[in-house]
Amino acid sequence: MKLFVKNMEKTWRWFGTKDDITLDMLKQIGVEGIVTSLHDVECGEIWTSEMIDTCNQHIISNGLKWSVVESLPVHDAIKYAGKERDFLIENYKISLANLGKCGIKTVCYNFMPVIDWVRTDLNKEMSDGTGTLFFNKLCLAYFDVKILKRKNACLEYSDKELKKVEYLDKTISEEEKTELIDSIIVKTQKFISRGIVGANQNPVEAFNTQLHYFDGIGKEDLRQNLKYFLEKILPTAEKYGIKMCIHPDDPPFPVFGLPRIVCNQDDIEWILNSVKSSSNGLTFCAGSLSAGLHNDVVEMAQKFVSKTYFVHLRSTHVYENGDFEEASHLSGRANLIEVIRIFEKENPNLPMRVDHGRLMLDDKDKNYNPGYSLLGRMFALAQVEGMMAVVKNEITNKLYE
Questions:
Q1: Is the pLDDT of residue 191 over 50?
Q2: Does the annotation mark 154 as catalytic?
Q3: Is 58 one of the annotated active-site residues of the chain?
């Protein structure tokens, strides 16, 4: 008789009861675990046991489990060491304890200042008619120099890039400018950071205000602020058996003059060694890491397999000039089949989600959060499940050679 070899747990990011994609739908397509957050709680406020239990029981009642919190957000004042940081950290510790008491043991978080993942086009049309997320360096430079008008922004771009910015400024329409603002600082951030822009605020002005909190803060400063945060919260995480999984920066290089500290192998090693703890771990996001040509994703998966507690499977195609687009899960430079082999063989049973998906078919008529379509992610899940089945077969056969 052959032993049963279990694959990674198939999870799905779900945005709560207001999500048009229901838990019943997810159960039908083979999802096993839910990745979610308390999306109505303001960043920095305490997650009470009652709030957590209500969400958890709703998931359980639909025959699923709350596998990962993504995310329990870290307030920017913790990242720039504001005067309220200790108060906010105490709130974070209480929320962690409440999660642990309710049996939620994996927490994905990030330490990206002001802005989470950055794309300049949320629906780049592909040759097959699907839409994908796209990062265009020129559009980012244009936004930074001409729309945001960030002080000294010009110093961060080459003369060649600045000439292209000036040319684009003569041809871009007001509609295209608005779409660029929406793509970079409105649509992609509203469901991640609880909104960096208030209902009656000018988004560019609001974004500039947030950036100023990080004036004078460099990479080493941000590293030390992360270390301070981890030293404070990891004892609570250990007490309740919670795995804290830091997410790589997306994209894995600085933007808008902000320091980034989770961009490459050296960064991750520094974080994991900064505070020795069984709870100090990594969310291995193959997509974020693959967007940097400096990263060998397979090599990094092998390096950090034992300290990875959550996996995001997606891939990117990166152009020579640094532009990148979200690729099919079967292609791109992430080499997901090899990444899957590493985790299945050396750290099995981890929660995994396919992360972003294309816009395809009826997805285009829906108001899904950017990157979080139904059919596109369902298609990606099928691709990944196929790769997982291949690896499972390889492992099973090898056991009985």
A1: no
A2: no
A3: no
pTM: 0.95
If asked whether residues 228 and 331 sit together in one domain, one would say: yes
Q: What is the pLDDT of residue 201?
A: 74
Residue 161: which residues within 8 A CB-CB, separation 6 or more? 137, 138, 141
Assign 166 to helix, strand or coil: helix
Residue among 76, 116, 247, 368 flagged as catalytic: 247
For the question of residue 294 being annotated catalytic, the response is no
Q: State how many domains the chain has.
A: 2
Assess whether 212 carries a catalytic annotation: no
Tell me, yes or no, whether 274 lies in a domain.
yes
The boundaries of the domain holding residue 194 are: 121-211
355 is catalytic: yes
Residue 180 CB partners (closer than 8 Å, separation 6+)? 120, 139, 142, 143, 147
Give tens-digit pLDDT for 219-276: 999 999 999 999 999 999 999 999 999 999 999 999 999 999 999 999 999 999 999 9
127 and 243 inside one domain: no
CA distance 171 to 177: 11
Which candidate in 75, 317, 329, 356 is catalytic? 356
In a domain, 380, yes or no: yes
pLDDT at 205 over 60: yes
Is 356 known to be catalytic? yes
State whether 148 and 112 are in the same domain: no
User: Which of 312, 317, 329, 368 does the annotation list as catalytic?
Assistant: 312
Examine residue 4 and state whether it is found in any structural domain, yes or no.
no
Assess whether 111 and 18 both reside in one domain: yes
Domain termination site, one of 168, 193, 211: 211
Domain with 373 in it: what CATH number? 3.20.20.150
**Is the domain of 142 the same as that of 274?**
no
Q: Which is nearest to 32 in space by CA: 65, 69, 71?
A: 65
pLDDT score of 401? 62
Domain-terminating residue out of 188, 211, 234:
211
Residues sharing a CB contact under 8 Å with residue 72, sequence separation 6 or more, in sequence order: 37, 47, 92, 95, 96, 99, 107, 109
Residue 82 placed within a domain: yes
Strands 131-135 and 324-327, by their bridges, are antiparallel
Q: Active site residue: 250, 267, 355, 363, which one?
A: 355
The dihedral formed by the CA atoms of 96, 97, 99 and 102, expressed in degrees to the nearest 10 = 170
Q: Please determine, for residue 399, whether its predicted confidence score (pLDDT) is greater than 80.
A: no
For residue 275, give the 3-state DSSP assignment: coil
Cα–Cα distance, 262 to 244 (Å, whole number): 15
